[in-house]
User: What shape does this take?
Amino acid sequence: MNTRIVSGLVLAALVALGRAAPAQYFGRNKVQYEDFRFRVLETEHFDIYHYPEETQAVELAGRMAERWYARLSRLLDHELNRRQPIILYASHPHFEQTNAILGDIGEGTGGVTELLKRRVVLPFAGPLAETDHVLGHELAHAFQFDMTGDPGRVSESNAPVALRMPLWFIEGMAEYLSVGPVDPHTAMWMRDALRDKNGKENLPGITKLNDQRYFPYRWGQALWSYIAGTYGDDAVGRILKSARRTRDPYLAIERIIGIPIDSLSKNWHAAMQGAFEPLRASTDSASAYGKVVLDEKVTGGRLNIAPAVSPDGQQIVFMSERDQFSVDVFVADAAAGAVRRKLVGTAVDPHFQSLQFINSAGAWDSEGRRFIVGGISDGKPVLSIFDAASGALEREERLPTLDEVFNPSWSPDGRYVAFSAIVGGLSDLFLYDLEADTLLRLTEDPYSDLQPAWRPDGASIAFVTDRYSTDLGTLKTGEYGLAVIDPATREARSLFALSGAKAINPQWGPDGRSIYFLSDRTGVTNVYRLEVGSGEVYQVTNLFTGVSGITALSPALSVATKSGHLFFSAYERGAHNVYRIDDTASLTGKPVDGAADVNAARLPPARRDRGQVVAMLENPMFGLPGTENFKTRPYRAGLSLDYVSDPNLTFGSDRFGTFFGGGASLYWSDMLGVHNVVTMLQVQGSLRDVAVLAGYQNLERRLNWGVAVQQIPYIWGSFDRTFDLSTRTLYEQTRLFRQINRDVTGFAAYPFNRVRRVEFSTGYRHVTFHDEVETVISQDGALIDRPTVELPSDASLHLGTGSAALVYDNALFGWTGPILGQRYRLEASPTVGSLGFVNALADYRRYVMPVRPFTLAGRFMHYGRYGSGADDNRMAPLFLGYPGIIRGYDLNSFATYECVDATATNSCPVFNQLIGSRILVGNAELRFPPLGALGVGPGLFGVLPLDLVAFVDAGVAWNGTEKPEFLNGILSTGGTRDIVTSAGVGLRVNLLGFAIAELDYVKPFDRPIKGTHWQFSFTQAF
Assistant: This one.
């Protein structure tokens, strides 16, 4: 019987070394497109890491951060235990390149507060109000971690209790503290939940808020608003402190407010019914104003946003997740809603990193032939122009001096494109001259300038701005209002603004005398019309839920500049649907009387005292410092300890003898995550069995590189027992084989884009072998002797290694494996020295989905060693029967009775046919989520992480002397190795995201004695 011991700490340490380490076989890339030169702005409580491009904006952020510190420390009755680091990026594409946060960062991530160094990492959002909100939200998380954790470094045993709290508890609290109880967007979600799609109340109890159906930011904010409004704002901090002790959010709430959670749920529901239900009688549904054009029945998607109608009103471009895997751009018939084509896709196309779907919409030219969108490609903003009829990309303008572009708008003559852009963290207006290929800046200041729209005669551009309501001295951000700017003189003037309410998304009527826009003047976002000459305002819609995109600032309105048809996106029943208004009377609207009253935006309870949160949010001067004490210093990278695995110590004995062991791994990095070091030590008995690793990785540039030094022991053995009856002596013999690898390796990876990279490595390996026999001799239970004899072993190896690989991976994943896209890895790895050979690898995988949700998956893989040392017996053989290669031939499924037709040179042909120095494998698989196919649960995949599979596997293993049989006639020598095959069906389960378990019923066709059988494994789908 054999056993093998491999260090788990070593594997964990290699994973911790990062994404450029050789252990990464596939995977997408995080590309460092920019060469950031960081500096540090020091304020009283913060170290703010930034780079020169952000110089103007970072001081504003420093003042905001100190103001949030004063607010949160007062509200939560807590001071942070150490200086708080903040890493600021000028834009979201820059933020996506950060090394402070591992893994990919999605477009919807506004900021992150990470655990190891308690860093707040976020991009400037452009508008100061949006940056201020995200900064406050993330600093609330910093307080949560500090209040529920220990001051020391994080290890497995002392992570902050906040990590164990549900998302509605943590995210909802941060949202309430940073926004307060008046929020039209969250109130819209709550009103919508009063009735679900079947007309039934859909208000979840507090213990049900963990369900993924309930967005934790919105629902958590609404609940905390109710708790704070009913029991006082100080209850928030007291509950958080109680949660550290109880480690139970529900018990913590009950202890502080004094009533059971079930009773709190009922009271909360009653308050929401009382606050929002009366509004139903005085409002309408979206269908009262026009016909639904785009909804789930028509498009197959629940997210139908950013409508942009052609000038004649016949076609509409919109963004949707209808293909399930990404938000893409589609063209549809504007009357019936039938989708004609996908204009831009991002799921498996690496060209576009982003289509800015959260904050942007595209635009038609005046002829209705071309369509323009803003996006991100290779880390830089682009304006992409498509032929709407064919979908072909006609032209693409790169804008390397800008960071992000939003809401392009075509001039009537087709020469200019106006758009808003983020530069250095701030938003301004720009013009691009398509004929002269020149960029013109229209505004340049910290004010927010957004959503430009050309007047039909081309004389001016309407846009959204806070320049007439924001006070930069006190950093009191005002409401968004409407303005116009003359593109020739760059002179701007205010058109319309409301105190306490927004006016966004301007769209000119065909006559150029009216502007349609969105406002939440009643607490509900609706469509309004402004007569530019008179200043009169008319309300076009009066919805119960609201007109909305993904966020409160997202574009959700479009008007056909020739026909006058109006389209808007309404939020209803948890989805975004697009409606069309044709009726002239409806388009005219009703006169608006009186000032704005945002009562419908107030989250319950309806009657509340003016608490601390409201008072502080309304007081811009509380805690606001000047900049006279701010200091800037260069950034100097210094390593500090991030994480310590819990040290372990083991002691025991088995038939291999008495043993002891222990170890720990430590992970170090600098503040920016550019320099990373991992160290690991594990002892497994003797000094020869010590596993040690030290690795360094540098992520400062696009070329990621690193070095690693390690010693890894591999131990396996056999045991035998004999008893001499004549002497009553028991002989227990343990034979231990050791292979110790000592490596020095340098590695590098250069990503071309998100999905393609090249990898290189070079190094030296010293391999030693040890073979020893320990015999325990006992008589009548008494130990007589315990000799250990070291047997002759193979000579040590001195090997020089190298590798070069081309890797591609644009695959999209389902529950248990890839379902769309392709992956390949082509690699050559020469070895020289004591042995000479070349490892060659070609692994290609393709995934297609002919009918949702069924995926056809295929893999072709060849791996082999070639050269004089390829078949050296000191090299571990390759084995076909691993579950992830060919099912039905697992090592542990073989028995001696299968070894028929044995010869002197081949003791078990049925097993040895699976072993060689080269393998060739082909796999085909049909995989699908059964619950998703039956419509049980939300989305494409269903409610449980299950996949059914049907498969066919085939492969052959060979070596330098025994060739594959199918090569007969191709090679000069005849082949003796046959292809082995299997087929079957199986079930895969995702076990809480930690492992993929697979149970197969498999028929191996090349094991004559072994029939169809069950096989269990932990294997992710290929």
Observations:
- Residues 55-76 form the longest helix (22 residues).
- The mean pLDDT is 90.
- The radius of gyration is 33 Å.
